[in-house]
Amino acid sequence: MHELGIAKDLLDIVLLKAKENNLKKITKISLILGEASGIEEDFLRHSLLDHLLPGTIASGCQLEIIKEYVKAKCKKCSAEFEPSEMIFDCPSCQNKEIEILSGKDVYVASIEGE
Ligand SMILES: [Zn+2]
Ligand SMILES: [Zn+2]
After folding, report:
1. The domain spanning residue 26 has which CATH number?
2. How many domains does the chain have?
3. Which ligand is in closest contact with the Cα of 54?
4. 29 CA to middle of ligand 1, Å?
5. What CA–CA distances, in Å, run from 108 to 18, 31, 43, 91?
6. How far does residue 34's CA lie from ligand 2's centre (Å)?
7. Which end of the chain is more exposed for a tag (fewer CB within 10 A), N or C?
8. How much distance in Å is there from the Cα of 90 to the middle of ligand 2?
9. Is 41 inside a domain boundary?
C-alpha cells in the first residue's frame, strides 16, 4: 500500500479545478502541507508522482509542496504563537489548552496548465 487516501482527495480537487478552467494538461501543482498535518512530504510526493498522477492529465507535471508552519492560540489568554518542537504550551501563561489556527491541513494552493 503506497497510496495515501488524502493524496487521492487532493488529486480529485486538482482535476476538478482543471476542468473548471478548461485545462487540457496540468503542468504544475502547488500544495500546502501543514507541519502538524501528520503527513510526510516524501510519502505524499511518492503517492502522487508514482501512483496517482500517471495516466491523468497531470502526468509528468511539476509538484511543489509548500510547508505551512503551525500557528496556535491560547484558549486562556488568547496569545498567538508558533509551537516549537511540538510543545504546545502557551508561552505567556503556560496553559495547555490551545487551539491550532493553521498548519494542520493539507490542501491545493494552485494549479497551472494549458
Ligand atoms: Zn509506491
Ligand atoms: Zn496563554
Report:
1. 3.30.2320.50
2. 1
3. 1
4. 19
5. 12, 5, 16, 32
6. 23
7. N
8. 5
9. yes
For 53, the domain range is 5-69+103-113
Q: pLDDT at position 88, please? A: 75
pTM tops 0.90, yes or no:
no
Ligand 2: centre distance to CA 45 (Å): 37
Distance 4 CA to ligand 1 centre (A): 10
- Taking ligand 1, which is a single-atom ion, which protein residues have CB atoms under 5 Å away? 2
pLDDT at 36: 87
Per-residue pLDDT of the chain (114 residues; tens, 9 = 90+): 567 899 999 999 999 999 999 999 999 999 999 988 999 999 999 999 999 999 999 999 999 999 999 999 999 999 999 887 667 789 999 999 999 899 999 999 999 999
